[in-house]
């Protein structure tokens, strides 16, 4: 029931899209133009708040991975991983490398699934002029079927390791409940050999899609790791020189509440809007991609930094190629770890965890009592961090072509939002935090 | 293509998106499904919108404010058959924990300006507001059961949805009982089957994400936990106070009173 209106007259017009399609959750766009200038550009996130930070209070620290997974059905592993890292940080526990490697495998599965979904089902129809992937499949059947099968490979990884793809049941603070046998892992090898090639084919396919011009000027923020393309470890870094451990996140990122949205918006202290997600990860870590993924990126015309949000579809495809290669490497070298998890004894402490969800950095902080009861929880999801940058991008897009006919301008706005792959279920129901000037 | 394909609509209220994502996770069946039904309203998947009435509406999410309640009533009027998918729509979801907290306490804890947030003090299932034709539980729902609901509708028969317990599913799977053999607390005896008895197969106890089975004996299981496994009363309450806390059998088992707080 998308309702749209645009009013025009004497350089004034209002663009309202009351229900955005092909994004996760309920969002709306409101842009007001006067005298040829955009005076308001809002991404309104009206998902009803679910208040997770409140309901976590009083829960046991071991419950956080399963409970916070329910914030988002698209990236539950991201929530489980950030929660585990934060709890292990609070309790002073190191998880052994073999278990960390399995965590990465699970997380690569989620990236493959989530990115393949966004590339083929949500984003590509914008470039090719379809309402959805189902109708696109009539003319581009091979690409859609390849995308669905890639997505399925991601889900298969999550199912082997996690029991199921949505809200996996095998993740615990300290590691896993049970690690897979070699026999359980083995069938993934053949699938990943196929997926590695299919992902490169997808990079070529999206590399040829014609993207509208756009240039983001904001700071790009993501994890950075000295050796790896980051997913489950690394420091928080940015193109503006930020380089901090997760524990310092709240000193540098401020969040504010506005009437037009149920997400609290983030900005970097003393600077402003920033973007997290594929464009940021790529800008900060391109040289740590696998050689084949890197080569595919260059062949698709990506430089070392890409600031066009519409081209994020190419970066996502490159990340899928990298994820498939890394997953294959882990699967081929797999030996079950000696134990599935390390014992974690609670203590009175604060812990921080930050990992790379498919849509960008996801920060958790927990304050624990000595018996492991959660006293306070704070969760900063990627989409609330990106909301302000998306609004700036909307503003720029409308200012580039203010005289387009109404339906085309609406479509421009929708495309801008979809390019950023917002997850509105994640973004709402959150944060306490400082109000401007408080 | 048939002359008239039934119109399928997917709706979302307060939820994580996972249950409707289950439909997109049917990678092998999705394109075939789109040939058999007309996807009339499914914003997560398509920009195309077809006006109602709808033959089959799948509803995800719980009701947490007046606007959503009014929207749900419009959806019900426009739907020949309405099926709730998942723990949020069927029982109120984990966000129903607010039903048992002091009014307003949760919003106050999360937002600096609670006055800007219009949220009911409760999170309630769809069936508290409109008649529901079928409730499919699970956090998330099982893909196989979701496809069964749609296939059965297309075939004009009742869907075969399990009503027995995870415990029975676990026995058929041949998993050694985690509770009897290893003393791990498990909600399998009182939880509806449908997940494939996943948790015990991964060496952990069932945590009840599919909600109560038909005629569960929660007090008996709670006694077992206390007397044989040495669980404290807080442990039983905590285990039942998750994704299906507002389902009557779990709510009462957790000692959280008879009504949903609403």
How many strands in all of chain A?
15
Largest sheet of chain A: 4 strands, antiparallel
- Work out the strand percent of chain A: 15-25%
The CATH topology of the largest domain in chain B is what?
Rossmann fold
CATH topology of the domain at 74-215 and 287-344 in chain A: Cytochrome-c3 Hydrogenase, chain B
Total of helices of chain B: 12
Instruction: Average the pLDDT over all residues of chain B and give the rounded result.
Output: 92
Question: How would the global form of chain A be characterised?
Answer: globular
At CATH's second level, what is the architecture of the largest domain in chain B?
3-Layer(aba) Sandwich
CATH fourth-tier homologous superfamily of the domain at 74-215 and 287-344 in chain A: Cytochrome-c3 Hydrogenase, chain B
Largest interface: A-B, 74 and 62 residues
Report mean pLDDT of chain A, rounded to a whole number.
Answer: 91
Identify the quaternary structure here.
heterodimer
CATH class of the largest domain in chain B: Alpha Beta
Q: What amount of the residues of chain B lies in strands?
A: 5-15%
| Coarse structural class of chain B | alpha/beta
Q: Order of strands in the sheet with the most strands of chain A?
A: 1-2-3-4
Low-confidence stretches of chain B: none
- Approximate helicity band of chain B: 25-40%
Strand count, sense and closure of the main sheet of chain B? 5 strands, parallel
């Amino acid at each position: 029931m998308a309702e749209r209106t645009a009013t025009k007259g004497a350089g004034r017009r209002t663009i309202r899209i009351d229900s955005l399609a092909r994004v996760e959750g309920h969002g709306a766009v409101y842009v007001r133009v006067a005298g040829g200038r955009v005076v308001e550009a809002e991404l309104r996130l009206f998902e009803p708040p679910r208040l997770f930070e409140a309901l976590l209070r009083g829960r046991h620290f071991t419950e956080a991975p399963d409970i916070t997974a329910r914030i988002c059905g698209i990236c539950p592993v991201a929530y489980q991983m950030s929660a585990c890292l934060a709890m292990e940080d609070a309790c002073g526990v190191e998880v052994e490398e073999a278990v960390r490697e399995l965590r990465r495998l699970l997380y690569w599965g989620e990236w493959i699934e989530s990115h393949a979904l966004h590339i083929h089902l949500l984003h590509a129809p914008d470039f090719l002029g379809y309402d959805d992937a189902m109708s696109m499949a009539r003319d581009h059947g091979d690409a859609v079927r390849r995308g669905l099968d890639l997505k399925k490979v991601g889900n298969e990884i999550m199912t082997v390791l996690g029991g199921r793809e949505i809200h996996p049941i095998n993740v615990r603070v300290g590691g896993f409940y049970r690690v897979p046998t070699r026999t359980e892992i083995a069938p993934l090898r053949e699938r990943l050999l196929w997926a590695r090639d299919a992902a490169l084919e997808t990079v070529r396919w999206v590399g040829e899609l014609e993207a509208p011009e756009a240039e983001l000027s904001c700071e790009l923020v993501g994890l950075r790791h000295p050796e790896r393309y980051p997913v489950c470890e690394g420091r928080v870094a940015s193109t503006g020189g930020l380089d901090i451990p997760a524990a310092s996140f709240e000193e540098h990122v401020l969040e504010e509440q506005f009437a037009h949205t149920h997400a609290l918006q983030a900005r970097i202290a003393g600077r402003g809007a920033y973007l997290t997600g594929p464009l940021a990860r790529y800008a900060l870590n391109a040289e740590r991609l696998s050689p084949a993924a890197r080569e595919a990126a260059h062949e698709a015309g990506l430089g070392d930094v890409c600031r066009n949000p519409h081209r994020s579809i190419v970066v996502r495809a490159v990340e899928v190629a990298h994820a498939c290669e890394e997953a294959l490497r882990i699967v081929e070298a797999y030996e079950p770890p000696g134990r599935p998890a390390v014992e974690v004894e609670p203590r009175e402490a604060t812990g921080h965890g930050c990992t790379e969800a498919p849509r960008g950095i996801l920060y958790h902080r927990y304050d624990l009592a000595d018996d492991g009861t959660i006293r306070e929880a704070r969760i900063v999801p990627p989409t609330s961090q990106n909301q302000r940058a998306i609004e700036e991008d909307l503003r720029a897009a409308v200012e580039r072509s203010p005289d387009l006919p109404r339906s085309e301008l609406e479509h421009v706005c929708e495309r801008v939002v979809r390019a950023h792959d917002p997850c509105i279920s994640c973004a709402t129901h959150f944060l306490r935090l400082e109000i401007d000037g408080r | 293509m048939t002359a008239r394909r039934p119109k399928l609509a997917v709706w979302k209220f307060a939820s994580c998106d996972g249950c409707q994502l289950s439909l997109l996770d049917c990678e092998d069946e999705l394109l075939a499904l789109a040939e058999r039904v007309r996807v009339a309203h499914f914003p997560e998947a398509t920009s195309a919108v077809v006006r109602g009435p709808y033959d089959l509406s799948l509803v995800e999410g719980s009701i947490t404010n007046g606007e959503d309640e009014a929207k749900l009533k419009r959806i019900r009027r426009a739907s020949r058959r309405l099926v709730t998918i998942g723990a949020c729509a069927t029982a109120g979801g984990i966000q129903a924990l607010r039903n048992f907290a002091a009014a307003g306490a949760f919003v106050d804890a999360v937002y600096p300006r609670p006055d800007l947030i219009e949220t009911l003090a409760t999170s309630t299932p769809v069936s508290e507001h409109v008649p529901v034709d079928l409730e499919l539980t699970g956090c998330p729902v099982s893909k196989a059961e979701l496809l069964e609901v749609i296939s059965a509708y297309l075939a004009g028969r009742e869907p075969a949805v399990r009503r027995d317990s995870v415990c029975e599913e676990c026995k058929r799977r041949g998993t050694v009982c985690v509770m009897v053999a290893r003393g791990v607390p498990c909600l399998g005896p009182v939880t509806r089957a449908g997940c494939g008895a996943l948790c015990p197969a991964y060496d952990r106890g069932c945590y009840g994400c599919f909600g109560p089975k038909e005629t569960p004996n929660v007090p008996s299981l709670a006694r077992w936990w206390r007397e044989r496994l040495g669980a404290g009363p807080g442990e039983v309450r905590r285990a039942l106070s998750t994704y299906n806390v507002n389902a009557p059998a779990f709510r009462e088992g957790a000692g959280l009173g008879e009504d949903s707080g609403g």
